[in-house]
Design goal:
By secondary structure, the protein is of the alpha/beta class. Helix content is 44%, strand content 18%. It contains 29 helices and 27 strands. The strands form five sheets. The chain has a seven-stranded mixed beta sheet with strand order 13-23-24-25-21-26-27, with helices on both faces. β24, α24 and β25 form a beta-alpha-beta unit. α11 crosses α20 and α12 packs across α20. The protein is elongated, with a radius of gyration of 35 Å. The structure holds adenosine-5'-diphosphate and magnesium ion (MG).
Amino acid sequence: MPATATTRAPQISSPAPTPAATPMMAQYWTLKEKAGDCLLFYRMGDFFELFFDDAKAAASTLDIALTSRGEYDGAPVAMCGVPVHAAESYLARLIRAGHRVAIAEQIETPAEAKARGGSKALVARAIVRFVTAGTLTEESLLEGRSANRLAALAEIGSEGDVAIAAADISTGRFEVVAVRRDAVDAELARLAPSELLVSEGAGDVPDWSVRQVVRRPASDFASGPGQKRLEAMFAVQTLDGFGNFTRGEMAAMGAIAAYLDHVATGQPIFLQPPVRHQSGDRMAIDAATRESLELVRTMTGARDGSLLGTIDRTVTAAGARLLADDLASPLTDKGAILDRLDLVDALARDALWRGELRAGLRALPDAGRALGRLVAGRGGPRDLAQLRDALGGARLLRERLARRADLPPLLARLLPGLDGHGALVDELSRALIETPPVDAAQGGYVAEGYDAALDALRETARDGRKAIAVLEAGYRDRTGIVSLKIRHNGVLGYHVEVPAKHADALMLPESGFTHRQTLAGVVRFNSSDLHEAASRVTQAGVHALAAEAAHLETLTEQATQRREAIAASCDVLARIDVAAALADHAMSHNWCRPDIADEPCLDVAGGRHPVVEAALARSGERFVPNDVSLSPDDRLWLVTGPNMGGKSTFLRQNALIVVLAQAGGFVPAASVKLGLVDRLFSRVGASDNLARGRSTFMVEMVETAAILAQATPQSFVILDEVGRGTSTYDGLALAWSVVEAVHEVNKCRCLFATHYHELTRLAETLDALSLHHVRAREWQGDLVLLHELADGPADRSYGLAVARLAGVPAGVVKRAEAVLAKLEAGREATGGLAAGLDDLPLFAATLAAAPAAAKDALREALAAIDPDALAPRDALEALYTLKRLMTDAP
Ligand code: ADP
Ligand code: MG
């Protein structure tokens, strides 16, 4: 599903129960009420049945037959069903289509129901679980290589204590961040949750970075009860040990805890203690920027073709998930970036070591998610074996790494995190066979030699089976029926089977056989010897199964007790995988280590766009590297040149270089020096960006407004043909003033691509702006696009040459040439589109005249406040004063 698409659970409305309901219908309605707007899977024998509108919705999504069963309120009851054994795949499709599902199981057997309430008693049912997009743990329902997050957005009071908490319960990862209201969008875009919880009373949420929005009761978002819930969940007296949380953060985390409680209906849930992020910890990248740069997904939602899809060489699923996180949230802390770079660097230099590490990692199973299933009570023998193999592998890896003398500091710090699972690994190794089954039901997963009593039971069963084989031979001898067989099935257990034509002899009372069943071609019998031998086998089998189940429980308990340490080890493995993958990709593509500088610069020599380069390479073409050099006194580059000349590519490659560098990776260039970027913005002119289907020029302007409001001198902005979505005059005027504002007010590093040649005149007034163009040449009447950046403005626009290149008929191009000649003559005479701009007052003068005067009272009052010297009461008073000043302003 595209990341940008929002699916909403269709509204399910069903008639209310009436007093005339049958007992089953009454039970159904009670459960349906609990299920709320989730589809209710109502267990009946081997099927989950759906009724009423649920049935209609499911039948159309799943493309299965809609039938009916009985009547209700005078109308037939719509019904459809899915077999229990195949339920997972149907669930997957319903979830993907945006539904949530409540599973009502039979919680007693029909026999128990009869014993309880007589022959007519209805089997008791209860909702045992809700299956929702954000709370999946099943391997088959999850994508291994991406995180699956449930997020909650909470706001306390009306002013700005906003926080977002996010949990990936498939791995237990839990994080929380306090955000400004205007950064909610960006944060949600980073997290890309599968499901977002918001309070019933809250306003609209930006929904295009979220797949499903679920409204929950406001009481779930109260910070006080939220705190209590979290303390209970983590079994601590106070949360202080995890961080000093704001009420908003508490509310968001509490809402997650409440929802998990609700969907798991009392089952344990795997959450690690929350990690608290500061919103300045990472580069701010808003949703529009992520979309246009295609960091982890393309505009159509695919992973392939995104930056992530192009450079991902991780060999573990956890590594792939971490790389996606890294690219989605580049760092802003120089030390942390250098740590990662040192590790990548060391791995880049030593191909042998890197290869060894990667081979070791590749063999490891996804222990993080196995652990998630075990903790949630849905794990099996296979999951334990995955822990055994992953943690055992981690131990070997650690031993090998510890022998190296020159470990990069980050790795040296991480290594101890792989330790301490020795006892668990040894226990699991002794307890389990090499490749145990996913499902415990059939047994056979506990290894020989682990439990003498279990071995004895198995021996008994084996002996019994041998005895049965001996019996079979004996019966053949005795009866002379060569085709006599002893068989086993679920109904009769062990029995003797002979072809019908030989049955008469065994029917005789003195034969020692008792007749059990006659089928078309065969007749089946029992005998007392067989019965005896069979019950020995069965009994031993039942006891053995029970013994295995008990071991499974104990081992699961041992593993889940160490869940935090195990999860931490998984994180370490993932980090090593990511670093090795980045190093590997860097080496094979000739990438370099970026230098992190202290001043706000961006110097790139020989920069390339990894995705475009890969696409060109597939068709055997070469990518032309380009340089850029932004510094405080030359921080805005205006790039002109013909269509298809490479402007957009040039802009984006530099944004991607910034992202990669601050994610701690190497970069596609010959050399890079970068001053850290606090916020990254990318905007694409409306007509280039039709995918999103809103009024495109409006979107362009909304997004541009956000840049002008938020970009700082530490930010990096790329603006691609902004102003293109409207008429020529409007567009030019807006582009003109946006460039001026970016230059004069935001003072950020900026690359601005434009087809408005007139903008080049801004170079005369704006000191830190310089002109550049992508080169093209006409050769024998053909246009050659060189994709090469050069200084100065483009000499002409080559529009007609591009048209010819695109196959516009020669006659049309010829006609256009004539029209152009006329227009150009007119321009000579009148000064053209930008005529009259010469005596435009300076941008600064316009700003000064803007209605800033009234706000000055507010500024003055604000400046006069010394927060440290204020008593709480005075602070409140001051706030009221400030608010008044603001509303007084015109
Ligand atoms: P513009 O924005 O100027 O219209 P684009 O950046 O969209 O141009 O580039 C158009 C096409 O040119 C790209 O799809 C790519 O195939 C090719 N191209 C762009 N930059 C380069 C480059 N540096 N080297 C080689 N080919 C390039
Ligand atoms: Mg372009």
